[in-house]
Amino acid sequence: MEFRSGCPIASTLDIVGDRWSLVILRSMVMGARSFSDLLAMPEGISTNILSERLKRLEQAGIIKLSEKGSGSKRGAYRLTRSGAELLPVLKSLATWGERNLPDRWTIPARFKAMDPDDPSLLG
After folding, report:
1. Taking the model in full, what pTM does it have?
2. Domain containing 80: what range?
3. Distance between CA atoms of 24 and 4, rounded to whole angstroms?
């Protein structure tokens, strides 16, 4: 991947700074594993955008796709250790939004309690 600069913030945003990547990661933290799970996100992502973002996140080592199994056409998506380390970023964004934006969803207690070392996050 090519980065705009050597700045770690700018380089991270080159990977996850679009309008969908962090939402995909949020859904994966909350248990989405399949393409159809992610396609069903309430934000309404299109199949071509979802495919492209999953490919980008996989190439960056943030998620991985497990082998196909038990009748699924595709495997299951899981966070890598690198992806799980984005959890504090997701939690900070969620907390800021809950505090500063009116009429937002309440952050689930399960999400607030999660830790990057939580084995349920990793693939």
Report:
1. 0.91
2. 8-113
3. 23
* CA–CA dist 23, 76 (Å, integer): 17
Helix, strand, or coil here: 104?
A: coil
Q: Please indicate, yes or no, if residue 2 is contained in any of the structural domains.
A: no
Instruction: Give the chain's domain count.
Output: 1
- Per-residue pLDDT tens digits for 17-70: 999 999 999 999 999 999 999 999 999 999 999 999 999 999 999 999 987 655
Residue among 42, 123, 33 nearest 84 (CA): 123
The enclosing domain of 65 has a CATH number of 1.10.10.10
In this structure, how many other beta carbons lie within 10 angstroms of the beta carbon of residue 38?
A: 21
Determine phi and psi for 83, rounding to 5 degrees.
-65, -40
Tokens of 9: 């913030």
69 lies in a domain? yes
Query: Is residue 119 in some structural domain?
Result: no
Residue 121: the pLDDT is 86
What is the torsional sign of CA 33, 37, 38, 43?
A: negative
